[in-house]
Amino acid sequence: MEEIEITARRIGGAREVTEAVTSVTADALDDMALPVVTDALRGQTGVYVQQTTPGQGTAIVRGLKGSEVLHLVDGMRLNNALFRNAPNQYLALVDPFIAQRVDVVRGPLSTIYGSDAMGGAVQVVTDRPFLGGGDLRTAGRGVVRFDGRTLGRVAHASMWVGQGDWGGGGAISLQDHDNVRAADRRAQAPSGYRSEAASGFVSWRPSDNQRTELSFQWLNQPSTPRFDELNAGFGQSAPASEVFRFEPNARTFVHFEHDVKGLSRWLDDAWLHVGWQRISDGRRTRDTGAATTREEDNRSDLFGVTFNAAAAPFGIHDLQYGLDLYYDTVSSVRTEVDVNTGQRENIRARFPDGSTLSTADLYVHDDMTLSDDWLLTTGLRL
Predict the structure, then answer these.
(1) pLDDT digits (tens, 9 = 90+) for 63-87
(2) How far apart are CA 309 and CA 257, in angstroms?
(3) SS3 label, residue 227
């Protein structure tokens, strides 16, 4: 079988691990025809997917969700200061068409990832094929889909090129879904949304044991309705809101990584990650019967640096150790608009505007193979 890196280890090749791991592979992702990446986890062991908004979704792992589960994209945190310990929409801001694999680790991983991995970790590994070699090589992929249930139109195109030690590629994705239609063809409104995404990367491999890569990802949902607020639920005679739209929700991610293998006995595998992520959580809401509409602009700018290393200096020990540095800045503005007069007034924001969150972590993690039947895992994080 092909060996893959397991999120439960964070760094290094495939190993025996004590954690419960589910991995959704590229072939399975292609067969699913996913509108959002969280749909890859539907029906997977130990994972439940909650959805109250089309185009979005939340993974619930062993009863925990939101900030209680660590979300990662290519080894960098997706979790930020806006995450709450409840369902949220942020994992769906990763383009499903560029996902190569989705891993779920069920159970706490706090030693190697930090305290918000109490329930486990969900990682999206994106597809960045390297086509380097002697001659110029190119490859591409195109997808066009139509969904009769939502009159959805989906298009995706990607292109890769490589020569010698260099390679790169890019992709664009567009989705436009109308309201869901029931068996009698009646529209279940509002449930339509649009999504647009772009990504790219460039990779340099100067030797067999080194790799340097720079990549970016961008996804935008201009206006997405929250249908549990816009339809009367249990015990309600009227919906809670006349207007409730995430408008817009977007994510921009720039990522640099460099990894080296075989440096020394204590540094067999080393990865350096530097990343910046901006998540925009805009909203437009109006309660049922209210005379004012609220408009919000909430943003998180997360900057992170991580260094991770693996080594096997002694026979039975398999060590991982590293450093995580993250700094998050939040901006938040909320405006109340009178429906009749159009008068605007700034009111208390959802989050403290200008607030920051910073973390600095050191960790060491050891997998000790005691025998063919016994594996002992220990760890420490400061």
Answers:
(1) 999 999 999 999 999 999 999 989 9
(2) 13
(3) helix
Q: List the structure tokens of 40.
A: 């890859």
Radius of gyration of the chain (CA): 22
Q: Is 285 helix (H, G, I), strand (E, B) or coil?
A: strand
Give the C-alpha separation, 225 to 285, whole Å: 10
Q: Which tokens sit at 382? A: 């400061």
Using CA atoms, how far apart are residues 78 and 15, in angstroms rounded to an integer?
A: 25
Nearest-angstrom CA–CA distance, 382 and 370: 26
In Å, how far are 207, 283, 358 from 145, measured between CA atoms?
Answer: 40, 29, 43
Distance separating alpha carbons of residues 181 and 175, to the nearest angstrom: 17
Cα–Cα distance between 354 and 6 in angstroms, integer? 37
Give the whole-angstrom CA distance, residue 132 versus residue 141: 18
Span 309-364, pLDDT tens digits: 998 888 888 899 999 999 999 999 999 999 999 999 999 999 999 999 999 999 99
Longest C-alpha distance within the chain, in Å?
76
